[in-house]
Every structure is written in C-alpha cells, then in structure tokens.
Amino acid sequence: MPLNTEDKKLELLMGNLLRLGVLFSAALVFIGGILYLFQTHTGVEHYHVFNGETTHLLNLTQIFHGILRLEGASIIQAGVLLLLATPVARIILSVFGFMAEKDYLYVFITLLVLGIITLSILSGKG
Fold first, then answer.
1. Prediction pTM value
2. pLDDT tens per residue across span 89-99
3. Is residue 54 within 8 Å of 89, Cβ to Cβ?
4. H/E stretch holding 69
5. Transmembrane residues, as ranges (predicted)?
C-alpha cells in the first residue's frame, strides 16, 4: 500500500529527527572529548583499579552547570544523554503523527511504550 503525502512527511520528519539527534550527540561527545583531553593531565591511567563516575556526572543539574563551565566530561555526558533522548523524542513524535491520522490503536500502543520507557527511566532500574 503506497504512503500518502502526510505519511511521507511524518516519515521524513522522524528520519531527520533521528539523524540530527545522532549527529548533534556525536558532535557534543567529540567536542567534549577534545576538551576533556586538554583538561585532564593526569598522566598514566591505572586500569587495574575501577573508578566509577563522579557524582556530578549523575545529576542533570550538575551536568548543566558543568557544561556552562566547559567541562569536557559534562559535555560528553550531555552528548550521551542526547543520544538516549533521540529515540524517545521519536516515540513522542509518533504519538502526534498517529493522532493526526486518527489511528487510535497505534496512539494507545505508542503511549504504552512511552509509559514503560518513562517508568523504567524514573525507577532507575535497567
């Protein structure tokens, strides 16, 4: 069954959203990586000891403040978060697309998927 013009527009919009999300997140990670390399002069890393992320990279507010201070690690973290948010934005866009088409079964299914993802993110459990 051929797609109508509205379906093609929505498909193009979703494709562009995913493409731009990936490109912007890659650019953020690259820029943050360059800054991180210039900001950290620790010398040789000791990989036999695991050091987890510092707490300022686990909080959105702290990440934002780190970006304002041009901290490389915070910019990298923002790029990763943008990469994770891109498919969620696509799901939200799909809800509006299905609503415009009055395809309420797919609106319900997409909202259910969005709810599951939201609960998973808010619960902090993978």
1. 0.79
2. 999 999 998 89
3. no
4. none
5. 20-38, 75-98, 104-122
